[in-house]
């Protein structure tokens, strides 16, 4: 099976049902683990992209967050959000057909916009990121995590 072609077929079906033109298939070896399409026309959820739908389904069905032995096939070039989820899941390869430039021409330019924004120094990006140092009087979640992690290591 040509998985990219299949992802494109899923995307076509999704457009015919009123959705965005994105489909994805996650494959482990020669087995399809999950299929998905963009769900923005069904849910108030900006994370309902095809690739994230597929990652959620795969992690639930395989009962793991580690998808490093899986390959992503997407109809469109992944946006930064989905690409980042692939980093966290350990996915090493993604095949795609339609570029973020083609998406932009269809009126779906956010992926390109975010890629360009992320390439800028943080102080020049569209989202204001304001560092607020931790108050030493409060319990420090990072320190707490480090302590628990150390004690876990010792108990092994
Ligand atoms: Zn995405």
From TrEMBL:
<protein>
    <submittedName>
        <fullName>Guanine deaminase</fullName>
    </submittedName>
</protein>
<dbReference type="GO" id="GO:0047974">
    <property type="term" value="F:guanosine deaminase activity"/>
</dbReference>
<keyword id="KW-0479">Metal-binding</keyword>
<dbReference type="Pfam" id="PF00383">
    <property type="entry name" value="dCMP_cyt_deam_1"/>
</dbReference>
<dbReference type="InterPro" id="IPR016192">
    <property type="entry name" value="APOBEC/CMP_deaminase_Zn-bd"/>
</dbReference>
<feature type="region of interest" description="Disordered">
    <location>
        <begin position="133"/>
        <end position="156"/>
    </location>
</feature>
<dbReference type="InterPro" id="IPR002125">
    <property type="entry name" value="CMP_dCMP_dom"/>
</dbReference>
<feature type="domain" description="CMP/dCMP-type deaminase">
    <location>
        <begin position="1"/>
        <end position="111"/>
    </location>
</feature>
<dbReference type="GO" id="GO:0052717">
    <property type="term" value="F:tRNA-specific adenosine-34 deaminase activity"/>
</dbReference>
<dbReference type="GO" id="GO:0008270">
    <property type="term" value="F:zinc ion binding"/>
</dbReference>
<dbReference type="GO" id="GO:0002100">
    <property type="term" value="P:tRNA wobble adenosine to inosine editing"/>
</dbReference>
<dbReference type="GO" id="GO:0006152">
    <property type="term" value="P:purine nucleoside catabolic process"/>
</dbReference>
<feature type="compositionally biased region" description="Polar residues">
    <location>
        <begin position="146"/>
        <end position="156"/>
    </location>
</feature>
<dbReference type="InterPro" id="IPR016193">
    <property type="entry name" value="Cytidine_deaminase-like"/>
</dbReference>
<keyword id="KW-0862">Zinc</keyword>
């Amino acid at each position: 099976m040509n998985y990219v072609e299949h992802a494109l077929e899923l995307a076509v079906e999704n457009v015919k049902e009123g959705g965005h033109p994105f489909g994805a298939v996650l494959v482990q070896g020669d087995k399809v683990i999950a299929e998905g399409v963009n769900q923005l026309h069904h849910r108030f959820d900006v994370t309902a992209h095809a690739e994230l739908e597929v990652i959620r389904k795969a992690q639930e069905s395989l009962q793991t967050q580690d998808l490093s032995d899986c390959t992503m096939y997407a109809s469109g070039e992944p946006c930064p959000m989905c690409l980042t989820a692939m980093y966290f899941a350990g996915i090493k390869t993604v095949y795609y057909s339609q570029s973020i430039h083609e998406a932009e021409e269809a009126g779906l330019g956010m992926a390109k916009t975010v890629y360009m924004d992320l390439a800028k120094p943080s102080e020049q990006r569209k989202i204001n990121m304001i560092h607020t140092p931790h108050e030493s009087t409060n319990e420090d979640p990072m320190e707490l995590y480090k302590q628990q992690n150390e004690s876990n290591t010792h108990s092994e």
